[in-house]
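JOB MANIFEST
job_type = single_chain_structure
chain_count = 1
residues = 167
[input]
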Amino acid sequence: MHSFGYRFNTLLTLAILLLAVLCALASVCDNFNRPTVQAHAEVLKVNRFRKQLNGNDEVSFTLSISMDLQSTFTWNTKQVFVFLAAEYETAKNSLNQISLWDHIILSKDQAKIQMQVSNKYPFVDQGSNLRGKKVKLILHWHVMPKTCRMIEGSMILSDFDVPLAYT
């Protein structure tokens, strides 16, 4: 007869093998999901554009954001992290990227968002390089699964011009 230790080891090994197979199947299933994200964001109003005491430019504005991220959710999705970024070029740096707003979506029911907000994080440039710049608004999302690899995507939503004069 086999002892309790042998039987427990066999049962534990079988359970771990089945868990590994289920995780592999979840990973394979996520490869077939092609989300179709629909989103729009635009700057409604520039609230403040000023030069800080240290010489840096700072912009505050009101955003209109609408998005539908329901297609990113599958049975393996734990949450979706979404953020809106501003990208622009300066003479010093070919790419400047600043996060303006972010949100964590925990369920498919919360994945439709429509709101008007001020930028959550300050839009500050190191120096006085923002006057008259064309800034692109880009939506980024990271799908965090319960198991396997994280899926990310992005889309360019709109662009706007920073005013030429401080307010």
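[summary]
The two ends are 86 Å apart (CA to CA).
Residues 4-31 form the longest helix (28 residues).
exit_status = 0
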